[in-house]
Amino acid sequence: MEAIPARAHGYVAAVALLALLCLLPLPTTRTPWWALALLSALCAACEHVVRRRFGGTFYPVLLAGAFLLPPPAAALVPLSAALLSPVEQRPALPRRVWRAARPALAVWGAAEAHWALGGRDAVVGSDFPYALLPAGAAVLVFCLILTALDGGIRAVAQGVPPRRAWRGLLSGSLAQGSVHGLAGLMMAVLWRSPYGPLAALLVLLPMWVSWWIFAQYHRERAAHQATIRALVQAVDIKDGYTRGHSERVGQASVMIARELGMDDDRVEVLRFAGILHDVGKLGVPTRLLRKDGPLTPEERRIIELHPEYGHEMVRGISFLGEARTAILHHHERLDGSGYPYGLVGTRIPECARVVAVADAFDAMTSTRSYRRARPVEAAVTELERCAGTQFDPRMVGALVRALARYGWHPQVTADESPRETPEPVTGAPR
């Protein structure tokens, strides 16, 4: 059972109290109860199907309620879904209260904004172009309230620092809310048209299709993640001294990519590249990977085959994209002294130059069987010293700026205590 901190209980109780205050004007409001009952039942049905089949939330019916009902009545629409949907985690009561109060406040705020801007008259008259203005304002208020509440619960329940608790929430909420808001507005306009509520339900059909496609994409993405996890776990089992190294190289690669202004899709590819850069070690004898003493020239040549082994292993995984090239070339050096092909300068793919810096940085800041970890400052100094010969100065500069902004927390990854004699770090990491 996952415990909920006392401060989170207090936060949920405060949100629930605010939601109850929104319902106080209900007795004096002219509420179309049949419409409220129908929207509540539809909301519960949609929420049940979406959570069970796809995961996530489904807002068109909630926003249609904000466009059709007075604010206190609109706040009641999500109540049935919260009461009837199952709660997998315990304790169930605060989670169920949160599921009811959170959307109730958001829908109430959306309805208040919509009605204040005359949106009800636009919906009743099916004045669709004009109806977009109050509807857009309602969706914005809806997303702002959800963002405020979700950031708050992250801060109090999960201990996320306040400056990070709300990061990225509004953009994601607006992306989903704008699509669902348009569908909710179409439902409301058709509901008030001569065709009635039955026609409004037809709006949900294309939404269900798009949701199914979205769910398929996420299932495929989950399968990709599972494939990557399996490969990384296999490497970690084989080379226990560098356990966790792959994930940290992925993290450092993301920091560099974001600092360089790469788009989100490419950042994700660089994360894959960092995580899988050493997958070719599965083809290297375990005794060489775990050898404590110096490697002979022949043994080093064998280990230096791991980029080619890795490239062969992932060649058929299409979703990795240019990450496959990074796996092959992450040990190349700008001066041509790297391997496997001795590429020079910009002939080394950009993604490989990113991973090379991330790999060397984590190798220096992690304790291995043959040396102790260096401080981050010493690792940065070494990277800057080798910039222009071994590493791309742009990538080194990007990592230095990212570290200054976000910091770094190196971990001990060795299974055994290190020896006192260090190995030069600028050599190829094993």
TrEMBL record:
SMART domains: HDc (SM00471). InterPro entries: Cyclic_di-GMP/3'3'-cGAMP_PDE, HD/PDEase_dom, HD_domain, HD_GYP_dom, HDIG_dom. NCBIfam families: HDIG. It comes from Streptomyces alanosinicus. The chain crosses the membrane at residues 9-26, 32-50, 62-84, 128-149, 169-191, 197-215. Keywords: Membrane, Transmembrane, Transmembrane helix. Pfam families: HD_5. CDD domains: HDc. Residues 242-364 form the HD domain. PROSITE patterns: HD, HD_GYP. PANTHER family: CYCLIC DI-GMP PHOSPHODIESTERASE TM_0186-RELATED (PTHR45228), LIPOPROTEIN (PTHR45228:SF4). This is Metal-dependent phosphohydrolase. Residues 220-415 form the HD-GYP domain. SUPFAM superfamilies: HD-domain/PDEase-like. It comes from the Bacteria.
